[in-house]
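Researcher: We're reviewing a set of sequences before deciding which ones to prioritize for further study. For each one, I'd like a predicted 3D structure that I can look through quickly. This is Membrane protein. If possible, include the structure in token form so it fits the rest of the review sheet.
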Amino acid sequence: MVNAWHRFIDNVPLRRFAVLALLIWVLYLMRGMLSTILLTFIFTYIVVHWVRFVQRWIPRLPSLLVVLATYVVLIAAVYFAVTKYLPLLINEIIKMVNSVLKFYQSQDGSWLIKQLNHYISASTVTAQVKHGINLAFSTLTSLTKMAVTFFMSFILSFFYTIELKQMYSFSRLFLTSDLFSWLFEDIYFFGKKFVNTFGVVLEAQFFIALCNTALTTICLMFMHMPQILALALMVFVFSLVPVAGVIISLIPLSMVGYSVGGIRDVIYIIIMITAIHALESYVLNPKFMSSRTELPIFYTFVVLLVSEKLFGTWGLIVGVPIFTFLLDIMGVKSIGDKKQNE
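Model: Here's the predicted structure for Membrane protein, in token form for your review sheet.
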């Protein structure tokens, strides 16, 4: 039994396969927390690389000071958005609802209601109303969960980055364990490779967000929209979410468009967002992802389609990193070695 155990420890490929299976099983058990884990990882990765970038230009600047300043700016930006732009968005929603109610109270609206009552039964209307109420509650619940997840991930990333050196030193102690050093070495091996692949995809998504923001801002300028800089910043933040972010930005942009030019500008914005969404999904996403990961566009596009079906919106974020990670583990193609050698 002891000899079999030692043979298992010495057999590195078999041992790493077992550790990888163990990690997948643990993540499956923690699937309810995957959103928090992924957001924490993304926030931490971005802040850590930002700290290193700043210290590259100002070597003597303490990392603690950079982290504190970064999170203070982020909190101020969120506070500014909530206190200034959220009330504007709510006011635009109220204006739109009042416009719809005013239309139904007009002569044309009364005629439309009579025609709808003629063709639609009361039971159908009641069922649709109940469905709408349930959808509203489910959407509110989802938004609440999203806000809690975002807040927890934000706090966890702050605690990690605020003690970056201590975290690194303490984590290295696991590699010197008398009993399970091999286990933590394999976990470190997989973690390092996944961080490299995920970082490459984050860089690609950043460039995609810049392209989306530039195209959207140019169109908004032609439409003479107010507060272009604020709208551009909002579009950039939403565009950091692959594919779905462009669609999410449609809601506030439509509100602003309706307040400026009415339903005509709303139609223009819908056409614009549809075109940019198609450009991102079918051109920018595969092209940037393939160029950064050195994968053919066909493979990248197929991975995005399959991962979106398997994991939903998160699949658009983790699909390519997981695929390139598996290629690296299987020895098919290594991602990140070229970057490290540079």
